Fold:
Amino acid sequence: MRYLVTGAAGFIGANYLKYILKMHSNCEVIVLDKLTYAGNLLTIQEELKDSRVKFIKGDIQNKELVENIFMRHDIDYVVNFAAESHVDRSIENPQIFLETNILGTQNLLDMAKKFWSIGKDEKGYPIFKQGKKYLQVSTDEVYGSLEKDWAVAQELILNESVRKVISGRKTLPTGYGESFFTENTPLSPRSPYSASKTAADMLVKAYEDTYHMPISITRCSNNYGPYHFPEKLIPLMIKNVLEGKKLPVYGKGDNVRDWLYVKDHCKGIDLVLHKGRLGEVYNIGGFNEEQNIEIVKLVISTIARIMRDEPRHQKVLKTELSNISEGLITYVQDRLGHDARYAIDPTKIVTELGWYPETPFVEGIEQTIRWYLENQEWVNSVTSGEYQKYYEQMYQGS
Ligand code: NAD
Ligand code: TYD
Structure:
């Protein structure tokens, strides 16, 4: 099993690399990553020592480089995580999102097609070598935004087949609306980021229809967990709480996201890669909706509790423990075109492949916060340099 994993120095790709090395002793992995501000070799430093891993620094848009990789290695699976992934940055500078997310995807598809096809059938379609697959890691943001029907979360009525999704949870899941994203929801992206991811998905699908290319697409809800870059909501809030800085909440803080622990996502991706039907889209998420403001409050209270109960952690604080309170919350100008609600219906992956989100949110968020407390060196390393400039520009005055 020879994987080409792109973007594996970033948040989800790195977690995926760690997962497959643990799960598949016989795998070999070529990592291709441009090491943008979001990619960091420190994140995968242990994996780079593994003889099964080869790291190549480069851009997925680079034809010569990607061609060379396919020429030198008999790649079985391409798993494409490489992307510009932050909505706020896409609002400031859409161009690079279109280049990396769309043209980069096209380049990978072209090279995979070139090296995986071994002739043509009687109708002129390429014939692909057995066992090859291209998996595009996509997002639920391609579906656009759902209505937020209720101001207060209500208990969800789940059908029998997806009861497994919530097995083990102490409380029944709640949500903020009646509708969910399914694989059949029309694509309706609303930010430059999601528009670029949608275009990439459509290209992948077009290669399936036009060339019978062996592909799968996964669309996931918001991830959280270790190695999450502190420009996204949860790691940014953890970092700012520890520093006693203001916590910038966009608008009223009532936008809803559906949170999934990154390791559960990685498991879902690998399952789709090996067991998913060719040409299919699988949504990955698990009835874990919450309003942003509640997430921020939970981060504050969890950190305050850990600090009080386990004073040894207080050494990472850059502020007095007494400053860690909801008083840090500051409401700032809303994001342009801010999507109101994301919520995934994972029935397909649950019923077809037996996947379910194993990590309850209360456990996942505590594990994540503890990871950040133990890994301040990583945080300091990834936020040195360009990050400071970005933060000043993005949150000036707050
Ligand atoms: P990330 O921003 O943390 O990491 C992206 C990685 O891609 C980095 O290592 C970066 O260096 C690399 N990269 C960027 N441009 C590149 C290029 N042109 N060539 C090669 N490498 C390049 O992103 P993430 O949060 O890990 O997301 C990974 C994928 O999952 C993305 O495709 C994203 O759209 C998708 N996704 C993310 C989430 C989420 O909650 N983070 C949810 C659903 C889907
Ligand atoms: P983010 O982590 O950027 O993910 P996405 O926009 O892809 O869902 O943001 C999650 C939610 O948190 C989103 O509704 C925007 C909001 N948010 C804030 O309120 N403040 C912040 O500083 C950030 C980064 C996000």
